[in-house]
Structure formats: structure tokens, C-alpha cells
């Protein structure tokens, strides 16, 4: 997890395109400039970055589901719940399931756990659109780096 670069997912460990599910891992760094201001002397991962982590896992699920034919853009976050604080060094388990895909939109339910304990969850809505010029290759490279393209031949 590289918070300051918004690279939230370290590794995709499971993808089931038929079931519409994904599982991923992220290791919160011990140190990050983010912690200098949130909060001084009591570092916590901001809720917005936890939401981004769920959105990225969901986005990779949608990308794989669509065979990298379209790019998902986050449009809405509904029913977000934060149950516990997340500090430096936490190992996060992220899961997402595809609830709907059609008419240019995709909806997922996502959650983050630490040591099996629920930390947060939300419903996320994405607009699926053609890739903006120049974004397809970097997205495929990032997906390859986190292992998404190695799982069941997804969107090679």
C-alpha cells in the first residue's frame, strides 16, 4: 500500500469472475506522510483512504468482469460503515462482490477486515465508460503488478 500514490491494493489473491468476487490484500505502511497530519502523535488511516481501498478492489473486479473493455469510475458510495480504527502496520483483507452490471453502471459491495475482524464496508457505484486516451496501458500494468492478470487468465 502506497498511500501517497493512491496505490491501495498490494495483491489480488483470488478472483472468481463467474461468481463476481475478488479478494485482495494491503499492508498499511509503518510510516507515511499521510500520518503526519492524521493525526499527529496518533496515526490513523483516513476513512476516505479506506473507502478508496474498497473502490480500487471493486474497480479491479469490474475491470476483470468486463475484460478490460471499459474503465469503471467511482460515482457513489452508499451505506458506508466504519467499525474500527486502522493504524500503521495493519494487514488488510479486502473483498468485493459484483451486485449489478448493465446500462453503463456497475454496483459492488465491498468490505475490509483485519485479522478476520470487520473494519468497514460500503456499497459502491461505478460508471463504466471507454478508457480515456492513454489510461488503458497503465491500468493493465498496475493490474499485472498486483497479480490480477495472473488469476484465471483474466483480461490478459
TrEMBL record:
Keywords, alphabetical: Lyase
Pfam assignment, any one: FabA
This protein's record includes keyword Signal: no
InterPro entries found in the cross-reference section: FabA_FabZ, HotDog_dom_sf
Family annotation (Gene3D superfamilies): Hotdog Thioesterase
The keyword ATP-binding belongs to this UniProt entry's keyword annotation: no
PANTHER family according to UniProt: 3-HYDROXYACYL-[ACYL-CARRIER-PROTEIN] DEHYDRATASE (PTHR30272:SF1)
Name assigned to this protein: Beta-hydroxyacyl-ACP dehydratase
Amino acid at each position: 500500500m502506497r498511500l501517497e500514490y493512491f496505490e491501495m491494493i498490494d495483491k489480488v489473491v483470488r478472483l472468481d469472475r463467474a461468481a463476481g468476487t475478488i479478494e485482495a490484500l494491503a499492508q498499511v505502511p509503518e510510516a507515511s506522510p499521510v500520518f503526519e497530519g492524521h493525526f499527529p502523535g496518533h496515526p490513523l488511516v483516513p476513512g476516505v483512504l479506506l473507502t478508496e481501498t474498497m473502490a480500487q478492489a471493486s474497480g479491479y473486479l469490474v475491470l476483470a468482469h468486463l475484460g478490460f473493455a471499459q474503465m469503471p469510475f467511482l460515482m457513489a458510495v452508499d451505506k458506508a460503515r466504519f467499525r474500527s480504527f486502522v493504524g500503521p502496520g495493519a494487514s488488510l483483507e479486502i473483498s468485493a462482490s459484483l451486485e449489478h452490471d448493465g446500462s453503463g453502471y456497475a454496483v459492488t459491495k465491498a468490505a475490509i477486515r483485519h485479522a478476520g475482524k470487520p473494519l468497514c464496508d460500503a456499497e459502491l457505484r461505478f460508471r463504466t465508460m471507454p478508457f480515456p486516451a492513454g489510461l488503458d496501458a497503465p491500468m493493465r500494468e498496475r493490474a499485472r503488478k498486483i497479480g490480477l492478470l495472473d488469476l484465471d487468465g483474466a483480461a490478459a
